[in-house]
Amino acid sequence: MTPLFLTLPPSPALAGWVARHQVIRLRFPAGQRAPIKPYWPRPACALAFYPRDREALVDGRGRETIKPRAALIGQPTELTRRAGGADFCVYQIEFEPGALRRLSGLSMAELTDQTLDAEAVFPDLRAVADRIAEASTAQAMVATAEAWLAPRVAACRRDPDGVDWAAARLIAGEAGSLDRLARRIDRAPRAFHRAFRHRLGVSPKLFARIARLDRLIRARNADPAADWLSLAIGAGYYDHQHMARDFRDLCGVGPSRFLAAEAAAPERRFGIAER
Asked: CB of 98 within 8 A of CB of 200?
């Protein structure tokens, strides 16, 4: 079976709510597990479905926690080690800043670094997960999920908030200083910090660091021959020490050790790099 590593945009009705759909399917020989995936923190909350072999989170002692077949994933702040089965398939919906809070009614601060059973939060998602498991194409999975999401989005009060806009600017690397960003949405610094944690799950400073590291890793994967320091500066770092500190704080290791681990990620077996 040809490996699948597909990213699709949302339909126009879900623009501003869904950032992207990602469908991955990787098959390994029977009885052989996929290699560990060092999953660096990204600036997003997500809803993930595992219609084939489940994914497990592996802690530092090698103990595994199996994820539910439909999982709400809060804003991560650290690298996680993920293990899939021989037939690994994940369909993940990455939400725009603040969208999952509006859809679920949950404070994202309660979901930070957490994985919840999505069917417990949205009971009618059980039938959706069943249909996604039966879908024969990535496009059918996306259509099924969007048919479930669209009426919920339409029923939600739009509730536009400057904090969500500010988070999008941080993801794009277009924010400038955090104090200036707070002033642009007419929030005092403390109020901005509180609202940001409620809507995004972390402080604006930490979110900015996660977004910056994510930009750098994706840029590196897209152009592995490029000069490392030039990529770092392009992503918003001042120098190598500045970059290395974010790797240590957010991934637990320096840049070289992270790159070595990421080079052994499951998709690399098929010549695919996440970018």
From this structure: yes
Q: Answer yes or no: are the C-beta atoms of 262 and 38 closer than 8 Å.
A: yes
Q: What is the CATH number of domain 205-270?
A: 1.10.10
Pick from 84, 90, 81, 91: nearest CA to 34 = 84
Q: Hey, where are the domains in the chain?
A: 4-155, 162-202, 205-270
Task: Work out the burial of residue 33: count CB atoms within 10 Å of its CB; fewer than 13 is exposed, 13-18 middle, 19 or more buried.
Answer: middle
How confident is the prediction along the chain (275 residues), in pLDDT tens digits per residue? Answer: 689 999 999 999 999 999 999 999 999 998 788 899 999 999 999 999 999 999 999 998 889 999 999 999 999 999 999 999 999 999 999 999 999 999 999 999 999 999 999 999 999 999 999 999 999 999 999 999 999 999 999 998 766 689 999 999 999 998 789 999 999 999 999 999 999 999 999 999 999 999 999 999 999 999 999 998 999 999 999 999 999 999 999 999 999 999 999 999 999 999 999 98
Which residues on neighbouring strands pair with residue 232, listed in sequence order? none
Residue among 173, 255, 179, 242 nearest 212 (CA): 173
At 142, list the tokens.
């996306």
Alpha helices in 4-137, H assignment, sequence order: 99-104, 118-121, 125-134
Question: Is the pTM of the predicted complex or chain greater than 0.85?
Answer: yes
Q: Computed from CA positions of residues 119, 120, 122, 123, in that sequence, does the dihedral angle turn out positive or negative?
A: positive
CATH of 4-155, one of 3.30.450, 2.60.120, 2.30.40, 2.40.128: 2.60.120
Point out which residues pair with 250 in neighbouring strands: none
